[in-house]
Write a structure and sequence with these properties.
Layout: E1 2-3, E2 6-7, H1 29-49, H2 55-74, H3 81-93, H4 117-129, E3 133-136, E4 140-146, E5 149-154, E6 157-160, E7 166-173, E8 177-187, E9 193-204, H5 207-212, H6 217-233, H7 238-243, H8 245-260, E10 265-276, H9 279-320, H10 323-341, H11 349-355, H12 358-373, E11 382-385, E12 391-394, H13 410-423
Antiparallel strand pairs: 1-2, 3-6, 4-5, 4-7, 8-9, 9-10, 11-12
Length: about 425
């Protein structure tokens, strides 16, 4: 990237210093008004002393002042006085007679008289002294040189310059400024290449030194900050760079302030905006951080299991001396499980035997299954629990057969017939 014929040094810097052209003054709207005031004053003086200037002369004089102001606006140096005065004279004296102008331009014609010299002198004075009026803003300071030597530092307000003798070396902004700078491919102490972008907040406290002691203080601050950044990062490891930035901020600020203080510049603070690492190193650090988090999670889980086991041990010690409470707790667990998950509950056999519920629940289930497969009139099984928690079973006696004693039943007859056939 090329700016005004100069190659940009740092492509990563977002707000590089703008190149400035040499100038002796700042031509503003106030300077133009000052030129018109001078012209009007000489015109009034001619009216009081001699005669009223001709209309054509007044128009030509005003046009010459406007052209001179345009020259000063484009070329803000005292060397522009020559073309400005030349244009003013051309505007005043070129084709001034009525016979030399077209018919539509006769308003610009005039006849020069001896009393018109004051107005012409006013035009030349306006063109010569117009840039002398300078307005300095509240936050600016201007360094004035007289015949090339330092004259003074002027604060905010109007400033009058002697044409061709005084010049404004620079308008210095004394507000807090911010400059971004970067350092690419810096090796840390543990040989890790990093890219660092940083900001420096600084201000000028002595405009005279900032202008007279260094050629371009903006470029000087930027280059000094970049050098200090490289030197500081090379002293620390990557871990320190990422975790202890305040240490590097203070160190870089101290180095910069010691270098720029003789220039009338003080560094207020230094901050990092971005630290770029190689992609491979970022992947490795991400995996390391993930492993550390997983290790920490497992540690927390083990601690939780240990605490739960300790609570269970205390509960077991309480239940060991109070078996009724254990039975009540077990029954409550069974009830909660059946209520939440339905009628199917899986329990350890030891728990059932301890609560004396295994035989009761098993017999009850068998009775329900047997009763569901038989006719309502068929014999049923009755269950009961004695005082000793033993399950007793009672069944109805089978009814005697109603067939005559001497006759065999159909089943017996069939069996005997089958036996006889086999014997034969």
């Amino acid at each position: 990237m090329v700016i005004f014929g100069q190659k940009q040094l740092f492509s990563r810097i977002k707000n590089p210093a703008k190149p400035k052209r040499a100038k002796d003054f700042e031509f503003s709207i106030f300077s133009f008004f000052w030129m018109m005031v001078i012209l009007t004053s000489f015109a009034i003086l001619q009216v009081l002393v001699a005669n009223i200037p001709p209309q054509g002369l007044i128009i030509r004089g005003a046009l010459g002042v406007v052209m001179a102001a345009l020259v000063y606006l484009v070329i803000p140096t005292w060397s522009a006085i020559i073309p400005a005065l030349l244009l003013a004279q051309i505007s005043l004296f070129t084709a001034s007679g009525p016979e030399s102008l077209p018919s539509g331009w006769t308003v610009l014609s005039y006849t020069l008289s001896p009393g018109d010299g004051l107005f012409i002198l006013g035009v030349l004075a306006a063109c010569l002294t117009g840039p002398s009026l300078q307005i300095v803003l509240q936050w600016d300071k201007v360094v004035i040189l007289r015949m090339g030597r330092f004259r003074k530092v002027h604060g905010p307000g109007p400033v009058f310059l002697i044409p061709l003798i005084d010049r404004c070396a620079a308008f210095v902004d004394t507000r807090i400024r911010v400059t971004d700078f970067s350092a690419e491919k810096i090796l840390t102490r543990d040989t890790v290449p990093v890219h660092v972008d940083a900001l420096a907040f600084w201000m000028i406290w002595d405009a005279q030194r900032a202008i007279l002691e260094v050629e371009d203080f903006m470029e000087a601050v930027t280059l000094s900050a970049q050098t200090a950044l490289r030197d500081s990062i090379g002293k620390y490891s990557l871990t320190t760079l990422l975790s202890e930035r305040e240490t590097l901020y203070r160190e870089i600020q101290t180095i910069l302030d010691a270098k720029t203080n003789p220039w009338g510049i003080t560094i207020l603070s230094v901050e990092f905006t971005d630290i770029l690492l190689p992609q491979e190193l970022e992947d490795v650090m991400s995996k390391q951080a993930q492993a550390e988090r997983e290790k920490q999670a497992r540690h927390y889980l083990a601690q939780a299991e240990k605490e739960i086991a300790s609570e269970f041990a205390e509960a077991a010690e309480v239940y060991r001396h109070n078996p009724e409470a254990l039975n009540l707790r077990a029954m409550n667990m069974v009830y909660d499980g059946m209520k939440a998950r339905g009628s199917l509950v899986l329990l350890p056999s030891g728990a059932l035997e301890h609560m004396n519920l295994g035989s009761v629940m098993g017999v009850t289930g068998l009775a329900k299954q047997t009763g569901a497969g038989k006719d309502p009139a068929s014999p049923s099984i009755e269950t009961g629990v004695s005082d000793s928690d033993e399950v007793s079973r009672t069944t109805r006696a089978p009814e005697p057969s109603k067939e005559p004693p001497g006759e065999a039943s159909d089943g017996e007859k069939g069996a005997e017939g089958a036996a006889g056939k086999e014997h034969t």
